[in-house]
Amino acid sequence: MRDQDIIRRPLITEKATTFGESNVFAFEVAPGANKIQVKRAVETQFKRRVAEVRIVKMHGKTRRQGRFVGRRADWKKAYVRLVAGEKPIEFFDSF
């Protein structure tokens, strides 16, 4: 898997924004990605040193439209903590 395919998009939510103050950033990542691949992808794409990566599996929600029931796909979220002293990631410049 290429580094460009691992990070799908940054997560810009209220929780992720408050984490950004402590040098932690959230990303949606490929379902098959592991911590080592996420760390390498962030370091190459954003040119920042990564201290820690935490990954969470998010289960897709069940949705209905009338009598039809469907399900959203499962996805993975990664919380990436940068090394102390690193500049924060500016998402709108990179994506």
Structural class: alpha+beta
The topology string of helices and strands comes to HEHEHEEEEH
Mean pLDDT: 92
Q: What Rg, in angstroms, do the CA atoms define?
A: 15 Å
Number of strands: 6
Q: In this structure, how is the largest beta sheet organized? A: 4 strands, antiparallel
List segments where confidence is low: pLDDT < 50 over at least 5 consecutive residues.
Answer: none
Give the DSSP E fraction (strand runs of 2 or more residues): 35-45%
Helices, by number, come to 4
Q: Bin the helical content.
A: 25-40%
Shape: elongated
Distance between the termini: 19 Å
Main sheet strand line-up: 1-2-6-3
Description:
- With 95 residues, the chain is α+β, with helices and mostly antiparallel strands.
- Helix content is 28%, strand content 37%.
- It is built from four helices and six strands; from the N terminus they run αβαβαββββα.
- The protein has a four-stranded antiparallel sheet. A two-stranded antiparallel ribbon has the order 4-5.
- The relative contact order is 0.25.
- The mean pLDDT is 92.
